[in-house]
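User: Okay, second chain of the day. Same drill as before: sequence in, structure tokens out.
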Amino acid sequence: MTSSTGRLVLIAWGLALAIALVLLIPITVRAQTAREVDLSQVPPEMRPAFVDAIDRMPPDFLGGRALAVVSMRLEQNWALATLAVQDASLEDNGMGANGALVILRSDGQDGWQAGIEGTPDYDKLVPLAPEVLISAPAKRILMVPGPAAPDIAAMKFPWDSSQSWYLTQGWHYGNHVDFAPLRSEPNKWVLAAHAGTVTRVCVGGVSANLQLRHSDGTITTYSHFDKNEIVTPTLGTYVQQGRILGKLYNSSFSQDGCGYSSGPHVHFGVPTQTVTVDGWTADSANNWTRDGVVKHEGDRFSSSNVRNEGDPSLPDAFGKLSPTNGATGQLTALTLDWGDSASATGYEYCVDSTNDNLCDGAWVSVGSSTAAVVNNLAAQVTYYWQVRALS
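Assistant: Same drill. Structure tokens below.
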């Protein structure tokens, strides 16, 4: 669903070791570094390139732990893959320091070459990749080194503006927080907090994780999707802010290959614990402050993010017509009027006197009407009204 809010002043996303196998079982190839690498998702002809690339990495690469390819995308004679550590205790496997992006190319003669992000081979191959694999905007982002400090001034919370989600757990696993919608919320979609390129995808038994890299070199991560409800799973894809990435897995799971979860929530990773999201500035003590208001774990947050494309089950975006934001001199009985959302099945509105983008009163249904009459408003009071489309 989508919503629109504003102020009204009333005064108102084998060949295994030389034997072709028919059984669909994991195949583990051991690199010269003596660490195990699960390459069961990798075509046999590409495995030597993976082993060679990993063998040339420092011994402490990804903590020196066992590795696995957890997602892969092939386009012609090119490929992108997510390499992740094998650790059932990680809540967001494959993301951040727990994984790496790998690019591969075959020239048809010397076989496949692989470059792991952060290496000269990676830097050489990315600019040569075809547009069908990595678009021009995505290439620019993939080639940007990580900054000394993040510069994402317009980051928004990763859910639609028609919903408010709860901060269910503060900082953990570094710069990660958990946000959860109401269990009754039917559209548990997660949106891109800022425009970026999909640089990691982990697909496990039931869940999936996704990572975006942004134009300043920083990353955001999103974990605990339903693996069957990933809308933007493609490595190397550039997405705009608000793009639907996927839907939350609606139950608990463990030892999944991509993490574990006690229930539907997004495990949201940001560049720093002093990040600003939707105007709320966090600190290391889990205080989120905006305009003098401080919120903590257990409080709910509204988002200004708006779904810009993706699942057709959500209504199209729309806007309010009148009264306009900041209108004064209004009557104590007036008509709220808004535009049409093409795919909406109905609308609900809310009027209250608290400027927090939440409905402190009750949502009132008006069916398919795009207007509502409000009576008995008090004079000399500032009111705020919201409207949301339903599907």
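The two ends are 7 Å apart (CA to CA).

User: Thanks, on to the next one.
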